[in-house]
Amino acid sequence: MISLVLCATVLAGGSRAAEPAALPKTLSADDVRAYLAGEGMGLARAAELNGHPGPKHVLELASQLGLTPAQQAATENVFASMHRQAVALGREVVAREGELDALFAAVDVDEAALERTLDEIGRLQARLRGVHLRAHLETRHLLTSEQVSAYDRLRGHRRGGHDAHGSSAGVRDDDPGGEERGRP
Question: Does 87 map to a domain?
Fold first, then answer.
């Protein structure tokens, strides 16, 4: 029920919604929540696992990485910008997925409308992924090479091979998927 209220609230752009909106059947409740919250959903995994730290995790590890006050402030700015854009795009993705759901709820699916909706969803998802990837690039430029190495070690990443647990994903076993929900 919380997801329904959150969906309605965020799509309406307000702090409260009069009635919960139905979730599109094309997305799970967790996916809707993640899109609307601007979460990473693994979209920046290519950056994360190749030495480009994410701003959210850098902030979480600020003391272990020895961030300077300037690095901390700059990383907070990168995260805030990324998050603002991701939330706005996430709202759009959820809305377009609702349109896709509605198309298939009809007896006859209009092919042209289907193609337009799919194109728009693909465009939005690409823009959303780009927002997360660019934030990783910006964050990398704020850190020293020593801090990036420490970040990779603290996150359990080993570039170019297997992690300490034998997984080829380069992610700790206790953090499956690395860049899953809640992580840019």
Answer: yes
Instruction: Identify residue 123 by its one-letter amino acid code.
Output: R
Long-range contacts of 63-68 (CB under 8 A, 24+ apart): 64/150, 64/154, 65/143, 65/147, 65/150, 65/151, 65/154, 66/147, 66/150, 67/147
Let me know: does 157 contact 48? Beta carbons within 8 Å.
Answer: yes
The model's confidence at residue 178, banded by pLDDT at 50, 70 and 90, is very low
Name the one residue in this structure whose structure tokens are 């290519």.
Answer: 46
Model pTM score: 0.76
**In total, how many domains does the chain have?**
1
Task: Check the CA dihedral 91-50-64-81 and report its sign.
Answer: negative
Distance CA 62, CA 182 (A): 17
